[in-house]
Fold this sequence. Notes:
Elements: H1 6-14, H2 21-31, H3 37-45, H4 48-58, H5 72-79, H6 81-97, H7 104-123, H8 132-138, H9 141-149, H10 151-164, H11 168-176, H12 180-190, H13 195-202, H14 214-229, H15 245-250, H16 255-266, H17 269-280
Helix pairs in contact: 1-12, 2-3, 2-6, 3-5, 4-6, 4-17, 5-6, 6-8, 7-8, 7-14, 7-16, 7-17, 8-13, 9-10, 9-12, 10-11, 12-13, 13-14
Amino acid sequence: MEIINPYQTIARIRSMPGLPAVLTQVMETMQDPEASALDLGQFIASDQTLAAALLRVVNSAYYGFYREISSVTTAIVILGFLEVRNLVLAVTAYNTLSASRPAQGLWRHSLEAAIGAQRAARLMSAPPAAGPFVAGLLHDVGKVVLQDLYPEVYRRAVGQARHRAEAVRVVEREMFQLDHAEAGAILAEHWNLPEPVVEAIRYHHEPGHAPNALKLTNLTAYADYLAYEAGGGDPANGVPPSFPAEAARKLDLSDRQLAQLKQDMSGAGEKIDELLGAIHGGR
């Protein structure tokens, strides 16, 4: 079995391209209490490809607006700053990380986890201050990273996981001496994402180990499971995750709320496919 030096992997991740400038501007604008929809819209509109992708997503069947939304500013006014930021992140992450053409199943799983985390957060009496959608969307980004850096080795890792009916992260640790959760967290640090998001990515398989961002990490772990249960599992994994009972308990949601979330997500598959198709449509 080929073993990859983990220090080489870490160095290669840290030399990967940073986030596009427009996304950095969007994130900074979101933090500015003086910013307006016009300010945010100007940053997005400065990137014609991103603006077109955003409008394509906003006008998809996922949202089902009765009239066409023709401007970025109108989209922001209707959907709100937070929703537009989430969409910009989803489009930018897809465009930035799809050079290696990772399986569409992984992107579908990531979107389902992001939407599941966002919906679960809305039900919590004390949700995380920020980050559910971002952490859900990027929790498995380390798989994209490892596949991009070592395509043949990662293909063998996936094959081994399927053959052994074992979680792919177990085989990743054997071959890379680190797993996709750690690889994804290193990339998130390189991208200067908020520390709670970095923690949620790093510990989403072991949420009890998160040193600080326990609430967001537990939420991400549950959203990962929820996405599998809703039929949006990542085909690279040899076995679906087990129910994260401790993480679910710490979300402080009732059994009825958890059941409703599962039912809602199970019925959202077609709309999520529409959203993924709109994001993918420009490529």
